[in-house]
Amino acid sequence: MKARISKNVFFSLILLGLIIILLLFFYQTILIEAGRYLAPEGKGKADVVILEGAELVEEDPAKDAVRLLSSGRAKRLVVVHQNSVNGKNFDRPLNYNFLLTQKLENLGLKQDQIKVLEVPSKHPITLTEAQIVLSNLSKSGIRSAILMSEGFHTRRSFWTYKQVGSKLDIKIIPYPYFF
Which of 46, 94, 122, 147 is the most exposed place for a label (fewest CB within 10 A)? Predict the structure, then answer.
């Protein structure tokens, strides 16, 4: 009986060792595929690119958004940033929307291609943001949008925007960005 238990433990340890070795060899592939699942990237063209920001908009995602427009995937850019209900961010200028527009123009966009929307940081943040942004775009006749959101937030943001967009007849295409 003890010999049989020892044999089972031995084979279990060998199997566990093989699994660990396989994971070590294929961890990059596993992580890449997990990332694709958690941060899906859609294909196709749209009327606008929505760059989902936080209280501040990062430079690299903004450059990626401009590249999407330059490649012909969309014609206009909507930059969304949150305004804290508790007051102004430390050292964020009062004319932040104007400064964002200027920076985007410096990257090659025309003023009529840029729309900056400020949304409140009211919970649930993503749902509130999607309702405000898509309602605004719906009034402008927009029917499709590429949603740029940060990496692993993409799946949640995409499903939220997709639910809100379906009621307004706006198709959402996810597009993650990473820092």
Answer: 94
